[in-house]
Amino acid sequence: MINEQDAAGPLRNDEDLDDSWAEVPAEGQGEGVMHSELVPHTGGAAYTNGGMVEVDHEDAIQRLLAEAYDQLPQTLLNMDDPIRLQLPLKATEQDRVDALAPFLSPLIQSQADIISDRPVVTSTDKILNAVLPPRTFSVYDEANDTTLDFVQCVRKQQASRRELDELRQMFDFKLKECKARMIGICPVRTAMFDMLGDELLRQVTIDQPERGLLLRRIRDESKMTLDAYQSLHGASTQYGARKLAAMHPCHDASRSRSPPTANATMKRRHS
After folding, report:
1. I want to staple 46 with a disulfide (CB 3.0 to 4.6 A). Which of 11, 57, 122, 201 is the partner?
2. How many structural domains compose the chain?
3. Is residue 8 included in any domain, yes or no?
4. pLDDT greater than 70 at residue 26
5. Beta strand ranges found along 10-71 (DSSP E)
6. CB under 8 Å to 13, separation ≥6 — which residues?
């Protein structure tokens, strides 16, 4: 926890902070280059890094995050605030994989847990990250010529009644905004219902993790069945088109035959 008395310069009040991020020094770093990790601001202290207030740098990161949000795919899934990954200055791909390991750890760690009769005790957060994996994105900081990596997990709290009403209004608004068709197969409506299903899966998993895992398996099976039906429909349509072309070759040849030219018509008249 950052002590307010240790922060140099005037502190900002909580009223001036809008969904703020507090930058705290990472553990195991020296006094040279300070590598930090963004965590949600919980109130009480201002942005500090090594005892110095860095409001301008944090505002720049907030603007970069706002621009990155506009480029991310839209979703109705309720997610937590992004967390900046703690990476060295010259991070490699393996460093990024190691930083994401706590968020993407498997439910079963070893083969012995699978063959054992004892139940595997797993936390709800771990199951939720397995059912709905967190999304990652990068933001390029031109001022410092660095790439900031963020991870965003789904929210771990149940939705309130007010949030459910807002979700219903947002769902109806998105359907009208994207001009989804009311009847027939509509890809837009299908994508919207998929996002709504993810939010339902999140709430069910928080309430009962085992039921959430079962619901995730049922949803995957339904998607596989639907994809199989679509593949069969496309294959049967192509087969029918080929059979129709084979049954009426003369009709196709007459349509593809080019009309006679003017010189050929004149030759037939003079002959």
Report:
1. 11
2. 1
3. yes
4. no
5. 21-25, 36-40, 48-49, 52-53
6. none
